[in-house]
Structure formats: C-alpha cells, structure tokens
Write a structure and sequence with these properties.
About 20% of the residues lie in helices and about 10% in strands. It is of the alpha+beta class. It has 2 domains: about 230 residues, no CATH class; about 200 residues, no CATH class. Helix 13 packs across helix 15. The two termini are about 40 Å apart. It holds the Pfam family Cytochrome_C554.
Amino acid sequence: MGLLLTRRSRSCTRGGAWMLLVGLTLSTGCRRVDVPVERLRVEQAVAQTSESCRECHAEIHAAWAPTDHAQANRPVDPVRDAEALRLFALVTPGSVRPEFVLGQKPSWQPLVPAPGGRWQPHEQAFDPAKHEFFNVFGAENRRAGEWGHWTGRGMNWNSMCAHCHMTGYQRRYDPATDTYTSTWIEHGVGCIQCHGPTAPGHGDKNRPLSAGPKPPFLGDRAKMMQTCAPCHARNEKLTEDFQPGDSYHDHYRVTLPVEPEIFYPDGQQRDEDFNWTSVLLSRMGHAGVTCLDCHDPHTTKTILPTTDNQLCQQCHAAPGREMPGGRRATPIDPLVHSRHQPGSTGNSCVACHMPTTTYMQRSPRHDHGWLKPDPLLTKELGIPNACSRCHEREGLDWVVAKADEWYGSRLDSRQRARARCGRGAGGCTGGGRPFAGVDARRGHSGVAGDLSVATARPARRPRRDAGGGGGLARGGPDGARRRSPFLCRQRRGSTSAHAVADRSS
C-alpha cells in the first residue's frame, strides 16, 4: 500500500492496541510484522565472492570447489594446463593463446580473445581423460565466415555461454560499435548465483539469527528448482532480469516438445535439450519431484548411487513414498519389473528410463523424461528405445515381440498415442492433441498440445551449451542475424554439437 518498511519490527501499544495509517486504517493489537528488505541483485554484490563464504561454510565450499559448477569457467593456469597448452599449440599452429578455459569434463574448450571485447570457444576441445584435443563439430567442416564457425557469432562466449558459466555476469553489448565490455563477479557458478546476495550484516556472529531477510527460497524445493532451470533448459530469454528466487517462466520461453527437430514425437530428447522441459512434462514432475530430490546442489552428485537403483528406490520401494500433494509413488520391484538380473544393464532404472545421447562428440547426457522404452515406436516412427541398445544383434522385431510378451497392454499408453498423433500416424484422441501434459508456462496440469499451434515455429537457429552469438563476422547487433538452422547443427542420426536456440535474437 505504498509503505516499504526496511526491517522486522514488533509493535505494541499502551493498553494493547495501536493503529497504523497508510492511507487507510490497518489492524490493532500486538503483532510481529514481517516486512521485505530490498536485496542487492547478483551483479551488484561485487564483494560477495564464494571465497568470502568460505569462512563460515568451509565444508560446503570444499564440496563445491571441484565441481563442474565451480569450474564452469576459469583463467588458464600455466601449471595446471601446461600439457594442454603444449598440445594446443601443436594442433592449432599460429593460433592465439587462450586466456580462459570453458567447462571441465568430459571436455573443456580454450577461450580465445577476439576483437570487440569478445572471447570465442575454439572448436578444438581438450579431453582431460584421454589427454588429447578433438573437434567438437566432428566432420562438419565448418568454414570461417559461417555463423556456426568457432570464430562466428554463433559461437561467441559473451552472448551465448557466459551467463551460465559465470557469476554476476553482465553482457554489456554496444550495438553502435558492435563491441562488448562484459563484466562479472567471479568465474564459475558461485554461491550467490544460486542463493542470491546476502543482506548487510550477514555473517556477523553478534547479530541475531532472526534479524534481516530470509533467503529467497525459504526451504521451498520447487522454488529452488526455478533457479536451476535457466541454465538447464533449452529456452529463449524474455528478460535480462532473472534473480534467484524468481519464477523461471516470468523470464524465459521454454522450448516445448512440439518441435520435431528438437524432440522425438514421444518427448525424448533429440537435439541437446538439457533437462527442464523433460522434467516439467514428466510423471515425476507432475508428482512434485525436483532436482534436489536426486542431486546434491553443492557436490552436484546424485544423493544416492544409481548403480543398484538406490536413487530411484528411495521413492519406489514398497509401499511407495508419499509425494507432495499426497500422491504416492508407484512401488516397483526392479527384478520383477525389469526381468533382468540385479547388477545388469537391463535391471538399471537409469539405463532403461534415462538413456543417454552424446553431444559435442564426447558429452553423454541423460534424458530426464523417464519415459517407457517402446520398441514398437522405433519400428513405426524411428524413435529410439533403450532395449535395442543392448539387443541390437537380436533385431528390432525380436525386441518388439519380447516387449509385447512381457508388458503387453501397459505399453499401449498415452505416451504411444501421443507419439503417433504427433506424427500423423493415427491414434489421436482428445481433439487431436499431440502432447498432453503440463502447461509449461503455468506449471500446472493441462494439455500442452493446445499450445502447439501457438508455439510451434519453424526450427530456430540452435546453439551449443558452449557456443554463442557475436563473433568475427558482422551480422547485426549481438549476433542477431537469422540463418538456416542446418548451418549450425549436425545431420539427423548423428550426435549433435548444438542444442539451444540463440537467446540473444
């Protein structure tokens, strides 16, 4: 009502009541008033580095420091990177010496300085396990001057990579001069990038714990997951204003599985889609499962092993865990369900329901839709299924017959009908809606197929998670030049070096 108080206060009156007027009379009596304290934005908290958190949070800092988040971007280290620098000079004779390193494992790319305040991730990436460089584009033979060449706008670090690899990053692009004066607080994904800046006086041991504002999440896992989404989703930025604690869908347009070059008709990942859409539209997402139910946010490892199905059995062991909203997870006995021996690939929940696709030649990514492997859809529509990965020698017809023998009508599900409908193969129900699931913009149950007309577009220019727009070839402000998507992605059926639509255009 126009009143902004800046601290928490207790107000009592003589005789038990007093009245606060702010254009109108509020209430009476003694009460505790929780009032917001204006927070710094992440990019403003220049003194709040992860190192400054270490004194009070040493154990968490130690767990985070070696992770892919902490090492998402870093300056070149002459000692640590000595071998790689030597090999890079041999593989790319005459190349500019890299200043930064992008990523950590299973590979990283040298970031080379370029005119206009730019950095470009080189196409020669380093595999630290094999101690060798390889071309992330494979045999595509991209050429200088093309949008998707490593020196081009499609592969620019400032506009396409840095916001997910740095803390407090500000792009600061000037269209008049086609230059960047990018700034950041620290390399890598630091504490405040996820938790948000702390309030004044945070860390003061003499300050009451109840004083000051609460963290933006307030223990809400669903809200925490919104902060994972911007960098773990294929999306387009709608604003530049997202801060920890905000709603993801207020700031991004998420890519839905109605775009055939991006998802398979059943919703499986095809291009590099990351995880957010898949989780959002999955049965798990409907049940309230969040990133933090499976992943430790500081170590980034799973909270339980996957090798013996412990991670999945935390919810699916009989009688089934009660989920948010009172829904109970389906109890599953892995041996009975899979009909494969314990310890085998066929007995693994993850191997069957989270198959991997390899991108950038050497980066396998798990699908997070937890879909049923359906060999019949492979036969009808060419959609991959996990069973055939192990039973290729037996042939597809054998796999289809075995799946029908074991699971029968359970495979004749909404997933199958949706896939057939989405490819015009018949079986459409409910008014011809190809993808029934969650309204991804509102986060509630609905029919995403209704969005297909409004959201389906021609395939947009994809990008990699380690690429960007704004390079050596001019083409409009911030790399916003429109080009054919097939200049920037690999052919169907091969591993993809690109995935996410250019967020700057």
